[in-house]
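ok trying again, last paste got cut off:
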Amino acid sequence: MYGWRGTVGLVKPTFRPGPLEAFIRLLPAGVCVVPRYVGISGGTEKEFREALTIADQRVGELAALNVDLVLLQGAPPFMLRGPEFDRENSRQLREKYATPVQSATMIQLDALQALGAKSLVGLTYFRDDLNPKFAEFFETAGFQVKAMKGIDVPFADVGKVPVEVIYGAAKKLFRQSGGADCLYLLGAGWDCLNAIAPLERDLRTTVLTNVPADVWATLKFLGIHETTKGFGRLLEELP
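nice, full thing came through this time. structure:
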């Protein structure tokens, strides 16, 4: 029987290959995934704001399939509106479709609290006109943001950034910023999973990024107590 431990529906922001496969690989046997897509392609603020209406429709489609949980993936659309909007939007969707709904951003705030983090340094693959707004999201939620900077890469090519480039940029930014309780790698579009463990060891900090956080929230919701090694403290210690 498929999905004998639960089925999670994903509302994914882009058609980018990679993040869906990574999410599925980190889930234990018996959990099935049903994806739906919003279709963001340029990574602009205009697209992010328009994405929320499409995401609402996708939640309805997944609710009709009787999934156990809907995850709204893609942090920027919600970060631009702030934590209060994000929390209220999820509540309204839960009531509208009578289905549990969680957003990636609310999950990340929960994960930071679970990890005991009060400060963070953030590295993203977005332009620096957006990064201060992402920092404001976390500051409004009560966290100290020491830095929130982006690497210079076209939005369409994010998945091609080598892991050693992510590691090097994150390590440099973290040290230049004086360190923090958490190194935050914003976005599921880059292939950063193999950088998590080395960064945690070398910087003696905790690393948080989208895919492991979404896996952690899924396991927590479904009541599955399994640990996964090699992708950071969140999956190794907290399930």
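cool. Strands lie at 6-12, 31-37, 69-72, 101-103, 119-124, 144-150, 182-185, 206-209. The first strand starts at residue 6 and ends at 12.
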